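Hi W., the pyridoxal-5'-phosphate complex you wanted:
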Amino acid sequence: MIYADNAATTKVSEAALAAMLPCLTQVYGNPSSLYAFGQSAKELLEDARARIARCLNADPKEITFTSGGSEADNQALRTAAALGAKKGKKHIISTAFEHHAILHTLDALKKEGFEITLLDVHENGLITAQQVAETIRPDTALVTVMFANNEIGTVQPIAEIGAVCREKGVLFHTDAVQAAGHLPIDVQAMHIDMLSLSGHKFHGPKGTGVLYARKGIRLESLIYGGAQERNKRAGTENLPAIAGMAAALEESTAHLGETTEKLIRQRDRLIKGLSEIPHSILNGDAVHRLPSNVNFCFEAIEGESLLLLLDDKGICASSGSACTSGSLDPSHVLLAIGRPHEVAHGSLRLSLGEDITDDEIEYLIQSVKEVVAYLRNMSPVWRSLNEGKQQFVLP
Ligand SMILES: *Cc1c(COP(=O)(O)O)cnc(C)c1O
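Structure:
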């Protein structure tokens, strides 16, 4: 099997598992308990916090553990909204291609009286700091722009956007779930006020994440209860997952340079191979993209059929995001970069793992070529396109 869906989730690394096991079987005390056994758990918790902070160039006090990327995104937006509302600022800037954890929270805030401006995304899947600068108003409470897109892999100019926001005195949050462990992150140099990450996207376990919030930002609680996480996130800490996430982030951050170089070479080979398929197009910028991400649209292809036939060949891939694949709506990300509905339906995302081999890359190219040709062969749409009864959308 070739697992090429690492943007959906990743395998827990050996290092993460090794860090988790003792927390499950030996140091299983409650970090809030006062006896020494509980305090050992507390020490592991604070050790994980310090290690994660170091990977982001943050202070441990700025790290809050959550149940994952979605919760961190919700808490960041709720925090900015509460702080803004106190000052009469009820305008939020974001983009049309954010993850649903952001977009659906923004929908909820809109119902509560906030005004949301979604920046247009350029066809290459990027926005500019200048667009942000031109959209900021005196009543803007927050700018939230994702670091790297989960579908098309484009990497935004986060440091430039951060600088604009800092200069104008507006809070800046970034959903860095796809970036953490895959790209260098420095919250200070990049002027990031709040940042979300999720353990299971970089070989940590599922159900754990981090909200970084710069010193001085009072987080708004989403979950009320005990005094864990300095009163900002009630509930007994998921220490095994947190310890695993810290080990995974440390490991992937340490190996960033080598894996990036190898993956970029393999990604570009894959892009070159798939570009040979007629009437296909790469989605997202060719350079400003995650080393692991390849995303194409193929004309006259149904993404779902493509995935099922690739599955028969032992390939795990995705079409649109996991959240949209259950529905018939085309991906909001592909629509945001201007792909027409019928083309957006024929999309394929391959997200590579660090251990993928060159032979596997060749197998992926060969398999996608075969499956696309097979499906087109029996497609009435393909026939009428070739007979000139219908116009091709893609060159
Ligand atoms: C996966 C993902 C999330 C959600 O993270 P969970 O830990 O699964 O809740 C949020 N944003 C992006 C960009 C993601 O890829």
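The radius of gyration is 22 Å.

W.
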